[in-house]
Amino acid sequence: MPRRSRGRHVNTSNLAPRTSHLRAAGPRIGLALAGGGPFGAIYEIGALAALEESLELDLNALDCYVGVSAGSFVAAALANGITIGEMYRLFIAGEKGEDKVSPRLFTRLAWREYLRAALGRRIPTGFFDNESIHRYLARVFARAGRTNDFRALERPLYLVATDLDSGESVSFGRAGHDAVPISKAVQASSALPGLFPPVEIGGRYFVDGALKKTLHASEALDHGARLVLCVNPIVPYDAGLAAEKGRGRHRRLIEGGLPVILSQAFRAIIHSRMAAGLAKYKTQYRGSDVVLFEPEPDDSEIFFTSIFSYASRRRVCEHAYERTRLDLVKRAGELEPLFARHGIRMRWDVLHDPERRLNMRRRPLGSLGQLKVTARDLRDTLVDLRRHIAPA
Question: pTM for the complete prediction?
Fold first, then answer.
């Protein structure tokens, strides 16, 4: 059994799949993406770019895709054949094109909801209009070679939302829930209560899929996946560890005021629930592997960065890319044999390239920049080592 590393790898068992359209031979690999708002999608694009470059793996040719909340955007795009590179250019770099993603897509006020609330003398159910998200994705998935129909996809896609009136999770893409347009399922899965109004589908109302579970990797495991790669952008912040490494803005988060306190509380709840779910897979899905990629708990760049400009989007995405590459190297002793069992080889020529960057328009670091990066990583390693060997 592989050695577990910081709780990020869970050895699990395989139950009988609920569907029968798996490929007859070869590895069965799934991808599960968690939420986190627009920031979550940005982080996932950077992390997935690092995984696709560093592993012999085609992210558009996996056996199963699962998305929750912001992760539903990325999962639906991958299942439709849209590459990580295309997502980066349109969503992160802001390059011109008919499918370019504008920040206004997520911040248009829900005027119709305001009017209905005023007429009904009630508080609006959401501030921003998520119908624009549905319309944008419906247009994107209508392009040649793509589809807005779950049933027409070459590979299964499961997008999870929460039924507002029952509190139960609903997996769009499963039998009985696959006639819903993919764009509408994304809208429902990402309808964070308070920000976006609930989404009506078939006379029922749906909100963010993360309300029930954070990751829903079990959707891929139930499908029969033997390896599920997971990306979770939301982790609680360790202010003390960050300060020890010279990264933190505050040694105590109370210094950051209410927004920082609320952010930490949300992250702690989301992450603890995900950890509990991953622990259950060990007994429920024996024989399969779940590999989780997420930020380090002392990553102040992730915790404090605003994403309301294209400049910060590029920085966060690049940061996720670089840290995921470093994570692969640090965990290579565990991950390399695990990946090999599923027919995936790590590309050491890519991982050992010190000047490789996600944003290729950026100038390479050069020798001085690389020296700074190396010194930072060495300092972090020494701090981690000291914490582990210090007497209790």
Answer: 0.80
